[in-house]
């Protein structure tokens, strides 16, 4: 009868560990690092484009809203006076007429994502800080008479605007 050699089992485990670690390292090198690089470059290019847009248009805010009766009048009366000459506004209700090649539309798609993007403000504070402020939930509460969340989001928005003055 052959005795089990504990050193042989240890050697087998070590070989499997080494192979597993090598495969994991290979996956990281071949997939994860390039993905991080691509997304990092994409983010950097988006920021450079936003900076270029600001220099051309002299506008550091992109504001998206719509014709919803829950916020249209409120936004036009309370925010637009502060945004005049400083913001590029996009009306979501008129998105069929948007030029997909225009930078503000691309910025909304890039930073806005696919949740609560209307109403929303994208504020370019500096190259390293781009603030995305989402108003949807706050206005949803507001339509039921709850103003706390809207006040909080407005404070965040107005503070961001003050930082760029």
Question: What features would you describe in this structure?
Answer:
- The chain is elongated and about 75 Å long.
- The protein has helices spanning 6-57, 72-78, 80-83, 103-112, 136-142, 148-163, and strands at residues 61-65, 87-91, 120-126, 129-134.
- It has 165 residues and is an alpha+beta fold.
- Helix 1 runs antiparallel to helix 4 (103-112) and helix 5 runs antiparallel to helix 6.
- A hairpin with a 2-residue loop joins strand 3 (120-126) and strand 4.
- It has a four-stranded mixed sheet with strand order 2-1-3-4, with helices on both faces.
- The termini are far apart.
- It is built from six helices and four strands.
Features:
alpha+beta, single chain, 6 helices, elongated, 14% strand, 165 residues, four-stranded mixed β-sheet
Percent of residues in beta strands?
5-15%
Q: How does the overall form come out from the CA principal axes?
A: elongated
Amount of helix = 55-70%
Radius of gyration: 25 Å
Order of strands in the sheet with most strands: 2-1-3-4
What's the end-to-end separation, in Å?
86 Å
Main sheet makeup? 4 strands, mixed
> Which class best fits the helix and strand makeup?
alpha+beta
What is the H/E order? HEHHEHEEHH
């Amino acid at each position: 009868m052959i005795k089990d050699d504990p050193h042989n089992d240890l050697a087998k485990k070590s070989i499997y560990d080494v192979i597993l670690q090598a495969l994991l390292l290979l996956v990281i090198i071949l997939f994860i690092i390039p993905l991080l690089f691509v997304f990092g470059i994409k983010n950097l290019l988006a920021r450079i484009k936003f900076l270029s847009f600001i220099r051309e248009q002299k506008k550091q805010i992109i504001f998206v809203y719509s014709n919803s009766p829950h916020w249209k009048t409120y936004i036009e009366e309370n925010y637009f006076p502060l945004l005049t000459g400083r913001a590029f506004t996009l009306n979501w209700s008129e998105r069929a007429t948007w030029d997909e090649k225009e930078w503000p539309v691309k910025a909304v798609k890039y930073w806005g994502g696919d949740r609560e993007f209307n109403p929303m403000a994208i504020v370019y504070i500096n190259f390293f800080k781009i603030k995305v402020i989402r108003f949807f939930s706050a206005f949803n509460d507001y339509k039921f008479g709850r103003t706390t969340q809207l006040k909080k989001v407005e404070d965040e928005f107005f503070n961001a605007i003050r930082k760029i003055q």
